[in-house]
């Protein structure tokens, strides 16, 4: 009977120890579940923040790209206008040079004709 009482006492102590361990494990699993939920919530918040900032960055970059595109189009238009003006001025200058050259050639032809006449006239006199 004493032996049975000792076994019963050991069994009761073992049961109490097991219950205490189960209670600690349950508590610890509960804490871990809470921590996991907190980590998941924090991760979700960080993901949302990253998505929000990425959206802002994309929007900002889109605005920057559009601004640069508009500036480039303006510069191209200005350059086209300036080039067009410079081209027109060059054409006018070339036309003036061509006219001047043609006038000089005409004067040179006239001068040559006068010299030929003078040479003929002087040759006719010497004969």
TrEMBL record:
Q: What is this protein called?
A: Uncharacterized protein
Please tell me the species this chain comes from: Eutreptiella gymnastica
- Highest taxon in the source lineage: Eukaryota
């Amino acid at each position: 009977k004493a032996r049975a009482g000792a076994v019963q006492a050991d069994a009761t102590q073992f049961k109490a120890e097991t219950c205490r361990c189960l209670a600690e494990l349950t508590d610890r699993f509960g804490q871990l579940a809470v921590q996991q939920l907190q980590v998941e919530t924090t991760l979700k918040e960080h993901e949302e923040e990253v998505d929000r900032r990425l959206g802002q960055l994309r929007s900002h970059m889109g605005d920057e790209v559009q601004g640069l595109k508009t500036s480039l189009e303006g510069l191209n238009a200005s350059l086209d206008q300036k080039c067009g003006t410079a081209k027109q001025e060059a054409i006018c200058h070339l036309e003036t040079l061509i006219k001047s050259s043609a006038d000089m050639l005409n004067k040179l032809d006239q001068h040559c004709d006068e010299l030929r006449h003078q040479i003929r006239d002087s040759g006719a006199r010497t004969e």
